[in-house]
Amino acid sequence: MTDRLEAAPLWLGACVGAQLLVVVLCVVMAVAWRERPLLLHAAATLMSALALQALLAHWPVQPRAVLLLVLALAGLQLLDLVSHAGGLRTRRRWLLGASAVALPVLAALSTFSAWFAAGGVLLWLVVVLLVLQRAWLQSQPWAWWLAPGLLALLAAAGSTLLEQPLAGMAEALELAVLLTLWTGCIYIGTSWRGRLYGETRARIQARNTIDPLTGLATPLVLAERVQAARHLTKRYGHPSVLMIVHIENLPAIAHEFGPETAEAAVLAAASRVREALLRDGDVAARLAHARIGVLAEGAAPGQAAATVATRILSAGLKEPLAAAPAEYLRFRIALGPVPVDEIPPKLLLHRLNARLDAELQARNERRIATLSQDEMLVRTDFSTL
């Protein structure tokens, strides 16, 4: 028994060190993943370490009052954890009221009587059970870590009610072990949830920004970049060019070799357009089955026609298609400057598409059609060209 008491300070220090390590990990991962529940858990864990210090150093603050504040922070964190669960509006309000209002008030009153602390623990337990009853099935598999963690926190809070005055080393070690078990389990469950939801957000963001077939950007990204390029032009005179690349012989490839070969041709076209871009700031987006939009920043129309557009044409003729060795990619391009006027990018693309349609209908030999600033601003009838 004496040996255990002598080793108790070492185990107690290890528990406090583990809690502080969890605080650091929570803060780092919360910043990296933008997860507020991890920050709330860091605050709750730091508060639990203060409860241990209040117990061992005989601070005038009662440990049971600090632990009620731990319960309040744990309730707020649980509120964020189950924010995805449906049908919990009323119960979430109860959890918010208990955590943000009732428990802090009871923590202050618990310094006068332990009955207030008991009421706070009971209130927290009832509200948590009501919330988890509805959210449990919608929170798998990470919710399994919540059960042992919350039970350990409940036992830690209950121990402060049973022990009077709760000042022995053995009682402090028991409390430290329970709090360490709680913070570790909740950290694992919260991190698991953050990883799952982070991957979901990444997939949603990728779906909104990356074309699944070609790996190019989506029209939404291209429109946002056009708006940004317009601001650069307006503020610094930094010119940009918007162009549309049309795969002219794609219908012939599909007719002769089948739709699978045509799909392979689209992939090859996307890859060659991406490789032909000169700068990292340039962006290519798939607009339609046979058309790719390109934004070339820092280039005037003449320069873009001589560099970016010419490189794209050359990339199509560089080598035949792997699925059709006798066929090359024949591109036709329409380009124009990005005006400083607040014209929607969709309208600019529409005008470039109309010019391309007119060029295809007229069967012009030139492969690059350049629109002037006035043509990009004025609704031009390209069918007469």
From TrEMBL:
It comes from the Bacteria. Keywords: Membrane, Transmembrane, Transmembrane helix. Residues 197-369 form the GGDEF domain. The chain crosses the membrane at residues 6-31, 38-59, 65-82, 94-115, 121-137, 144-162, 168-189. InterPro entries: GGDEF_dom, Nucleotide_cyclase, Rev_trsase/Diguanyl_cyclase. It holds the Pfam family GGDEF. This is GGDEF domain-containing protein. It comes from Ramlibacter agri.
